[in-house]
Design brief:
It contains 10 helices and 15 strands. It has helices at 45-60, 97-101, 105-124, 146-152, 196-199, 204-211, 214-224, 247-261, 264-279, 302-308, and strands at residues 9-10, 16-17, 30-35, 67-73, 86-90, 132-135, 141-142, 159-160, 163-168, 173-178, 188-191, 229-230, 236-240, 291-292, 298-299.
Length: 311
């Protein structure tokens, strides 16, 4: 790997980590980017640490090891010990106060996109335009066959994961999802040069917002007539029922809006079903969005565990 790295540095727990210094460049055909929010925004740090361990094992289990992973996080972020393909990129961003203060879903989305986009930008800064990049949310998991498939396939505009699974933390089964890329951010593999940030000609705001939203990228590609290839197997797991996830914050905002608008009981019921459609979208069609198949539950067999959880 053509990059400059430090010797092992200690995190707050004394575990060794590797850092990418400013000005360094990485050279790998595929780079995973894991944006990690400011530590003050995490409800359960120990759960986050455990989730990071599983996520890292999922990445490190790839059958094709021709990749690296950049974890874009604050300097004070505690991370588990990592193998020689996982590095951290320090992003010294303040707490996301705009997210805490959000009273509408759009304000919430704007705050998330801005924070996530700036962290992705820090990783993008050490990658060339031909590098294939994939954002992986820090509690999601990917198939160990993903890198091998992408690097052996003919090079096109990029790939989408349109088949995946939903997993409720701690349960022993998965629910298959079609149009997975309309549900989960861990779903796009694109060359860095496709992004507004690398192409130039866009405002910094628009470039950062795009890097923070897989849906904006997909919508722009559809508008431009760009066709992404589809990964031909279920390739990622979207985790639910995580205390550090944003579902609870969505419900808080919708409850507040309902209370302010009056008709609390009726509006809370509507809010509940809206949240359920967003995160458990069993009624959506393939055209309008993701479709979950709860009737086709997949048990967490040793084979599935090995494929997604790193064993």
């Amino acid at each position: 790997l053509a990059m400059t790295s430090s010797a092992a540095a200690s995190d707050p727990s004394g575990l060794s980590e590797v850092q990418v210094w400013p000005g360094a460049m990485v050279s790998a055909p595929l780079v995973f980017v894991v944006p990690v929010r400011h530590p003050s925004g995490v409800v359960n740090p120990e759960q986050q640490y455990a989730d990071h361990q599983v996520m890292m094992r999922s990445l490190e289990a790839q059958t094709d090891q021709n990749f690296i992973c950049l974890i874009a996080c604050n300097p004070e972020q505690r991370l588990p010990p990592a193998g020689d393909r996982i590095f951290r990129v320090h992003v010294d961003l303040p707490p996301n106060d705009a997210l805490k203060a959000a009273t509408t879903l759009e304000a919430r989305a704007l705050a998330i996109r801005n924070d996530k986009g700036l962290r992705f930008k820090a990783a993008m800064d050490v990658c060339g335009p031909e590098t294939l990049m994939m954002v992986v949310d820090d509690d999601d998991l990917i198939s160990r066959n993903l890198v091998a498939h992408v690097l052996s396939a003919p090079r096109g505009p990029g790939w989408v994961i349109d088949r995946g699974y939903i997993w409720n933390s701690g349960t022993d089964s998965l629910r298959p999802v079609e149009n997975f890329h309309r549900l989960c951010g861990t779903s796009l593999i694109l060359p860095a040069g496709l992004f507004l940030y690398k192409r130039g000609g866009a405002s910094e705001h628009d470039a950062v917002q795009e890097m923070g939203s897989h849906k904006l990228i997909i919508d722009a590609a559809v508008a431009a007539g760009t066709q992404f290839d589809r990964i031909p197997f279920p390739a990622a797991i979207y985790r639910q029922a995580n205390p550090n996830a944003e579902q609870a914050n969505v419900l808080r905002i919708m409850q507040t809006q309902a209370a302010q608008a009056g008709g609390l009981k009726k509006r809370l019921k509507r809010a509940f079903y809206t949240v359920r459609r967003r995160y458990l979208p069993v009624r959506k069609t393939l055209v309008s969005g993701p479709k979950v198949h709860p009737e086709a539950t997949v048990p967490l067999t040793p084979e599935i565990t090995a494929e997604f959880f790193g064993g």
